[in-house]
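Q: What residues go here?
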C-alpha cells in the first residue's frame, strides 16, 4: 500500500498543481499553457455562472495549487486532502451530470484521493466521532 499511496500522492499533487497553475494563467492571460478543448453548451452555461461570481474560480485554482504543492512536498498532507475533498467531489459530479470527456480523469482523481484518505484515516477519525 505504501507504493500505491506514494504514487497517488505524487500524481494527485502534480495534477492539481499543473492544472491549477494552468487555470490561473488562463484566467489572467486568456489562454493557459495546456490547451482546453471547446466546452459543450451545458458546460459553457455552468462555467458562465462560475465566472460570473468573480471570486469562485480564482479561489478554487489557488486552493488547487496550494494543495497540489503540499502533496508534492509531502507537507501538511491532511490539510491538502481536506482542501481537495470538496473540489474533487464537485469535479466528479460535474462530469457525471454534464457528460463530456473529463469523466475518466475525474474518476481517477477521485480514486487517488480516496486512497490518500483511507491510508491516513486514523488521523481523520476524530472528525467522525460522536461527541
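A:
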Amino acid at each position: 500500500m505504501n507504493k500505491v499511496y506514494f504514487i497517488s500522492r505524487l500524481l494527485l499533487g502534480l495534477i492539481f498543481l499543473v492544472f491549477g497553475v494552468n487555470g490561473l494563467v488562463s484566467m489572467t492571460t486568456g489562454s493557459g499553457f495546456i490547451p482546453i478543448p471547446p466546452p459543450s453548451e451545458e458546460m459553457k452555461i455552468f462555467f458562465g455562472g462560475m465566472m460570473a461570481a468573480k471570486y469562485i474560480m480564482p479561489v478554487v485554482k489557488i486552493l488547487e495549487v496550494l494543495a497540489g504543492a503540499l502533496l508534492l512536498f509531502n507537507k501538511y498532507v491532511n490539510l491538502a486532502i481536506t482542501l481537495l475533498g470538496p473540489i474533487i467531489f464537485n469535479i466528479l459530479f460535474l462530469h457525471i451530470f454534464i457528460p463530456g470527456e473529463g469523466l475518466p480523469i475525474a474518476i481517477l482523481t477521485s480514486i487517488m484521493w480516496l486512497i490518500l484518505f483511507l491510508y491516513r484515516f486514523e488521523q481523520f477519525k476524530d472528525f467522525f466521532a460522536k461527541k
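A: Context that may help when evaluating the design: The mean pLDDT is 92. The chain is about 75% helix and 0% strand.
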